[in-house]
Amino acid sequence: MKKIQIFVFAIVMLFAFNQVKAQNTSSKADVLSAYYGVKNALISGDASATNSKAKMLLAAISSFPVDKLSAADKTTWTKYADKLQFDARHISESDDIMHQREHFAKLSENMFAAVQAIKLNNAPVYRDYCPMKKSYWLSETAAIQNPYYGNQMLNCGAVKETLPAAK
After folding, report:
1. Predicted confidence band of residue 4 (pLDDT cuts 50, 70, 90)
2. In the Cβ-directed half-sphere of 127, how many Cα atoms lie within 13 Å?
3. Signal peptide location in the record (predicted)?
């Protein structure tokens, strides 16, 4: 019986170690990647997928490697993390695509500010604008795919700014 307890304890400890190791290997770009997941789900018009992707974004924000930031960047991240979590949480808790899109507009503003200030991107980031919604979003490609209107107006918008890959 004692051998089984030791074996179970060893497995639990190994699992816990791997969880901590996984959290420590998260990168700054994970938050932006998770944001793109939300954006792409909104493009498809799938509220359930958007809900799921927003939960992934919340997890990425929570495991953000703050310890790898300079003091100034920590202050900046703290300024935006709560705002990003607020909108990601609202998106994750809603099954209404229109409500999700409303919060996505504010999420996109704060994400752009964080990306620009802390250099969260390891590839170019395209800041796109929807004239109908009068709102911006971020994209990993220069091709316009509008998350605010999805298939209704998929190509409505324009690239307004490009942030180069951070070094």
Report:
1. low
2. 19
3. 1-22
